Amino acid sequence: MIRMTVNGRTVDLDAKPHERLCDLLRRALGLYGVRVSCSEGECGSCTVIMDDEPVTSCLVLAMQAEGREIVTIEGLGNEDNLHPIQEAFIEEQGFQCAFCTPGFIMAAKAFLDENPDPTEAEAAMAMSGNICRCGAYPYIVQSVMNAAARLREGGSVSNTG
Amino acid sequence: MIRQFDYLRPDSIDAAITMKSRHGERARYWAGGTDLMLQWRRGEVMVDHCIDLTHLTGLDGIEAFPGEIRIGAMATLDDLDRATSMHPVMEALGDTARLMCTKQTRTLATVGGNMCNASPGADLSPLFVALESHCLIQGPNGRREVSMEDFLTGVNTTDLGAEELLCTIVVPVPQARREASYRRVARTVVDIALVSAAVSLTADAGTVTDARIALGSVAPIPVRVTEGEKVLAGRSLDDIGAGHLEEAAGHAATVARPISDVRAGAGYRARMCPVLVRRALADALGRLGGHEG
Predict the structure, then answer these.
(1) What are the two backbone dihedrals, phi and then psi, of residue A90, each rounded to the nearest 5 degrees?
(2) Range(s) of the domain holding residue B67
(3) What was the ipTM of the complex prediction?
């Protein structure tokens, strides 16, 4: 059994010696927001936050994550209480099929925690570790900028109300 | 096919080396794992025992000592990016680390792992060579040092013995001013280098006392452009003109031994070598206060 913190909860998990973090999070905790696509660390869809840093969880052994603090998309918000970054992606339509979206949002979360007031160029560069096969990139960058503004204003829910 | 291995977690460098000695060839040191995970999953590397170095303490620091900076082999590329303010040579290393792979991979990938994987296209290797770096290695028979030039021996091969562990990369910091620069051609920001050049220039009292030029991605290991270095060494910063940079860079074309592959043709790579050397030299010279910078 290995112990780690996942989405604020301390959990003891029965990880296999060769198991990847992405597989453990999906298998043991049902966190299917961890999307596994390329399995080569290229596409960023399996991005989770480990000790405040974004990582491609397909490249991490579960055993390497022992004692670490993991946050997945499920730890950000839910349908009734969306995180400002999730609201921003909805408002700016920062996705089409949305398979890549949890990875983009987790990368955006780690980026905005470090740089709350980015330029568009910085936001685009920060998203360069994620691939969107639908090609929604301009809207994704706008979503990150929108999210940055929301977070700077203290995470206000919407600018429409 | 489901691949499996046993997992071992050493609590010290000595314990890791003992584990490697006991389990032999199919035991592998596992650092960030960003290369090894893929090689193992593809069946290119057989792993029966994973010796996980992640939880070892004391191998991931980047620290300044008199006359040198010591980079722990387990420091990540992201750590290197964050250490740029330590010294001008660290600025070049951090700028280079930031060009590599993606943020999500830089937070995992280690500097030592990058050197041990020994890809001919590795961005950091020509720069470490240009910076006169050396490696501190520990093995069953104790510790030893080897220059980065001699550490890298071929495509994916190093000077490391079967049980040895790369612990630290030492970057010397001379009393005189030293500036380094790295330039590359890559298709996109997250791509690996098609061809690259790294330089370091050291100046004392307005004169270049040491010049080092190394090419990447044009041979199995980084290639020194020693004839080009001689053009600049001993010259006063004020005297160095565009012609000298052109002449020094020109020697790059004669020592490069590029191959053609899916990413670029040999001819293109060869022609880009002098261009990148000139750009890197101009950048380093400019920061030293030379006119041609």
Answers:
(1) -70, -45
(2) 62-172
(3) 0.93
